[in-house]
Amino acid sequence: MKTYTVxxxxxxxxxxxxxxxxxxxxxxxxxxxxxENILGRLIHxxxxxxxxxxxxTLQFKKxxxxxxxxxxxxxxxxxxxxxxxxxxxxxDIAIKxxxxxxxxxxxxxxxxxxxxxxxxxxxxxxxxxxxxxFKIKGSIDRIDEELDGTIxxxxxxxxxxxxxxxxxxxxxQLAVYAYGCEQDILHRKVNKVGWFYPTKQLDVxxxxxxxxxxxxxxxxxxxxxxxxxxxxxxxxxKYSPSTGFCDFCGYRSKCPEYTHEYWHEKENSNKxxxxxxxxxxxxxxxxKKEIETELTELKNQIKSFMLENNVMNLENAKLQPQERGNYxxxxxxxxxxxxxxxxxxxxxxxxxxxxxxxxxxxxEQKIINNSYTPKTIYxxxxxxxx
Length: 386
Description:
By secondary structure, the protein is α/β, with parallel strands linked by helices.
């Protein structure tokens, strides 16, 4: 028999095409696991385990287990599970851990006021048959029996966004929880439904609304009828790009509203040609690295040659040409300037040259003067040979 949940109904209301892709075509997608997802799941698990066995609550009462013990256990589990989120920063992990520890502390304070009275159920599932057409299923975080015998349904909310008591009375999820509890779990009237916000240590409750239950049942019947009539004809399921959920939809690439944003591989694309070009580019890149390495080595050899032969560091510019050694600096400069403009090899100080221009031939003076540009100033100093 078909089964529906409030989550399915919400998905149907968001976008019928998304519902079709997810539940009728059975095209599943993996939603991104986030720190917030992990935190919510761990909090629910620890709240459930707090009352998993009566021995646990007795240990809390007797001080065998302390709040610090409980929080340390949570911190260990948190570090273990949060490590799977590779993009999460240490700061984000620490912030979420603090939030989780606050939730545990506020939950503990709340339950102390109740003297650790055991709930009737935690994480309790239900299934209700609707006129032989389909079933409504769900899982309730917690069902309490109060001291006066009344029944309370509690849904834990880790979010900081708070709802009102009026919203609790008309909330679809809570309405279905109350219906499932009354029809399947307890067969008793539910007196209160609402949320506990552990980050705020706040309870928000109200009486369940029978009108809300009727509206949900009517909406489910309407959805079921529409699905029966349309079958697997995809064109009959409307898409709703204006509902505000599109940015987070895992089926966006299949939606007619957004398919133009996605690239689809052509069946006849020449993959071999692309592969060959990539391989050639890789080889050329490797050759480039080898050439750059060889060029660096040659530059270092040139620089060493000039240093060893006093070409770069001749301080006394008034030396006669025959005293300058076997290498003419200006001539070498003309050759080396082709290599990175010679900046790595000859340091020319403009003022020093101007003071000693008369030491050079007219041809050499012309070369030196032509070395100056508005953007680049070179200087050349000489050192007497030993």
